[in-house]
Amino acid sequence: MSKRADITIDDVAEAAGVSRQTVSRVINRGPHVKPLVRDRVQKAIDSLGYVPNLSARRMAGSRSYLILAINDRKRTIENWAAGRGNDWVDQMLFGGMTECERQGYHLLFELIDTETEPALRQLANVSGALRPDGVILTPPHSDNAALCAWLTERSIPFARIGHRDGSHSVDVFMDEAGAAYEATRGLIALRHSRIAYIAGAPNYGASAQRIAGYEQAPEGGGSRPRDVDGGDRRVQFSGGGRDY
Amino acid sequence: MSKRADITIDDVAEAAGVSRQTVSRVINRGPHVKPLVRDRVQKAIDSLGYVPNLSARRMAGSRSYLILAINDRKRTIENWAAGRGNDWVDQMLFGGMTECERQGYHLLFELIDTETEPALRQLANVSGALRPDGVILTPPHSDNAALCAWLTERSIPFARIGHRDGSHSVDVFMDEAGAAYEATRGLIALRHSRIAYIAGAPNYGASAQRIAGYEQAPEGGGSRPRDVDGGDRRVQFSGGGRDY
DNA sequence: CTGTTAGCGCGTTCAA
DNA sequence: TTGAACGCGCTAACAG
Question: Are A73 and A162 in the same domain?
Answer without folding.
Answer: yes
